Amino acid sequence: QVDVAAMVRLFGYVDVTDTGFIVAALSIAFNPLFWNVVARWEHKTRALSQVFGSPRAACYCLGAVILVLNCVRSHCFTEAMKSQPKVEGWDCHWTYYSGLAISAVGTLFVISSFLALGFTGTFLGDYFGILMEEKVTSFPFSILDNPMYWGSTAIYLGWSLMHASPAGLLLTAVVAISYTIAVLYEG
């Protein structure tokens, strides 16, 4: 059973009307929406492949855009955390190192996913007609489905704990919800 009173106290620290918080939440929700819409559009029209001269060049360009958008999202996330209050009781070594460990596990999942899939496998190459020879089942895919999404979520969770940030925790929930919706859409 969830202690609702503790959650209410925790989110009493968060100003969801703060412009930085709103921009961060919108950038978090925008990214998977953007890449799924563009990839589906490419799959139906092959328009990007035509503009860039090949499916591989188009996929690399979309991947570059996704990476830039992820940097913008991370910057907005960090700025939103910095503009909101910390929980003083969390601003300690134990919470910091717990967050660091969670971020490290998330980073392991993201990097190992990328290494297992390669650039085009990571950045929607299948929508461009660039198919892998077989489904990847090695680590981290042997541990969980969608390890890049959940690794990324873990990175944000760890980052939030490292900064003792309730706003970061709420934004991490937005990340998890956005990825859950993306998985449903992609599946």
Automatic annotation (TrEMBL):
Its membrane topology: Multi-pass membrane protein
Entry GO CC: endoplasmic reticulum membrane
Compartments where located: Endoplasmic reticulum membrane
Pathway: Phospholipid metabolism; phosphatidylcholine biosynthesis; Lipid metabolism
One Pfam family it belongs to: PEMT
Superkingdom field: Eukaryota
Keywords: Endoplasmic reticulum, Lipid biosynthesis, Lipid metabolism, Membrane, Methyltransferase, Mitochondrion, Phospholipid biosynthesis, Phospholipid metabolism, S-adenosyl-L-methionine, Transferase, Transmembrane, Transmembrane helix
Entry's EC annotation: 2.1.1.17, 2.1.1.71
Catalytic activity: 1,2-di-(9Z,12Z,15Z-octadecatrienoyl)-sn-glycero-3-phospho-N,N-dimethylethanolamine + S-adenosyl-L-methionine = 1,2-di-(9Z,12Z,15Z-octadecatrienoyl)-sn-glycero-3-phosphocholine + S-adenosyl-L-homocysteine + H(+); 1-hexadecanoyl-2-(4Z,7Z,10Z,13Z,16Z,19Z-docosahexaenoyl)-sn-glycero-3-phospho-N-methylethanolamine + S-adenosyl-L-methionine = 1-hexadecanoyl-2-(4Z,7Z,10Z,13Z,16Z,19Z-docosahexaenoyl)-sn-glycero-3-phospho-N,N-dimethylethanolamine + S-adenosyl-L-homocysteine + H(+); 1,2-di-(9Z,12Z-octadecadienoyl)-sn-glycero-3-phospho-N,N-dimethylethanolamine + S-adenosyl-L-methionine = 1,2-di-(9Z,12Z-octadecadienoyl)-sn-glycero-3-phosphocholine + S-adenosyl-L-homocysteine + H(+); 1-hexadecanoyl-2-(4Z,7Z,10Z,13Z,16Z,19Z-docosahexaenoyl)-sn-glycero-3-phospho-N,N-dimethylethanolamine + S-adenosyl-L-methionine = 1-hexadecanoyl-2-(4Z,7Z,10Z,13Z,16Z,19Z-docosahexaenoyl)-sn-glycero-3-phosphocholine + S-adenosyl-L-homocysteine + H(+)
InterPro entries per UniProt: PEMT/MFAP, Phopholipid_MeTrfase
Enzyme class per UniProt: transferase
Family annotation (PROSITE patterns): SAM_PEMT_PEM2
UniProt GO MF annotations: phosphatidyl-N-methylethanolamine N-methyltransferase activity; phosphatidylethanolamine N-methyltransferase activity
Bilayer-spanning residue ranges: 20-37, 95-124, 165-185
One GO term of the biological process aspect: phosphatidylcholine biosynthetic process
Name of protein: Phosphatidylethanolamine N-methyltransferase
